[in-house]
Write a structure and sequence with these properties.
It contains ten helices and 14 strands. By secondary structure, it is α/β, with parallel strands linked by helices. Strand 9, helix 6 and strand 10 form a beta-alpha-beta unit. The protein starts with a helix and ends with a helix. One of its GO terms (molecular function) is ligand-gated monoatomic ion channel activity. Belongs to the bacterial solute-binding protein 3 family.
Length: 272
């Protein structure tokens, strides 16, 4: 009888330990997408670096100094703020130069976590990527040679306008030209310096992109016309599946707006 009592007691203790063990395993692994850290953010934290696609040819936003090799600008400061938010250190990011044509594919194939590169928010692009709330608003503008005598869009009738590949400038100018009842031609280029060179050489009659970008290429021989077309709102883009990362980015930008930090950065770079 005594042996049977000991056997029953041992069996009860074994069952209690097994149940306790199962419970601790479940509690230690919160479900992905639940209240724990989002998987894509944890992956960035485990890697120790935030990978961001930035412009390297847009003075004041993202520009690589040819002498030092350093990239700096308003959007680089925004990148620093996000690295600090996600990794606790504003220096823990890798900046990869992108163009209007390459920024989407680099985000698609996972080479970068975010794109912060004068990326205009459009309904069409929102079908493919998460966009933060706007952090800067501008309008499409026109730069011409001072000696061209061109003062407005009508003056570009039957002329050639240089635009960046995959940018929204072409659509905005075409719509405005249609309203004016004039015909214009376009040549597309891979980078902004290529467009400026084409303008200087007379290959095109106008360089069109957002006004703030054009100011980075303004010199003694050129002028930016007063016309502005189609407001362009810049947002931080992330992959559609990375909802947790998109929320963290958006929360950070809105916190910067509320605190006045975003305004200070615009003033720092002469954008406001």
């Amino acid at each position: 009888m005594k042996k049977l009592y000991i056997l029953i007691l041992s069996l009860m203790m074994f069952i209690a330990l097994a149940v306790s063990g199962c419970g601790s395993t479940t509690d230690s692994k919160p479900a992905a997408g639940g209240t724990g850290t989002a998987p894509e953010i944890k992956a960035i934290q485990d890697r120790g670096t935030l990978k961001v696609g930035v412009k390297v040819d847009v003075p004041k936003f993202g520009f690589k100094d040819p002498k030092t090799g350093q990239i700096d600008g308003f959007e680089i400061d925004l990148t620093r703020a996000l690295a600090k938010k996600i990794l606790g250190d504003e220096k823990k990011f890798e900046a990869q130069g992108v163009t209007a044509k390459t920024r989407g594919p680099l985000l698609d194939n996972g080479e970068v976590d975010l794109v912060i590169a004068t990326f205009t928010i459009t309904e069409e692009r929102k079908q493919s990527y998460n966009f933060s709330d706007p952090y800067f608003t501008d309008g499409v503008a026109l730069m011409v040679k001072k000696d061209s005598g061109i003062t407005d869009l009508k003056g570009l009738a039957d002329k050639t306008i240089g635009v960046a590949q995959s940018a929204t400038s072409k659509k905005a100018i075409q719509e405005a030209a249609d309203k004016e009842g004039i015909k214009v031609k376009f040549l597309e280029f891979g980078t902004y310096p290529e467009i400026k060179t084409a303008l200087d050489s007379g290959r095109i009659n106008c360089f069109s992109v957002d006004g703030a970008i054009l100011y980075g290429y303004l010199d003694d021989t050129t002028v930016i016309l007063n016309d502005r077309f189609t407001p362009q709102e810049y947002g931080v883009a992330s992959k559609k599946a990375n909802a947790g990362l998109a929320k963290t980015v958006n929360d950070t930008i809105n916190d910067m707006k509320k605190s006045g930090e975003l305004d200070k950065l615009m003033q720092k770079w002469g954008l406001k």
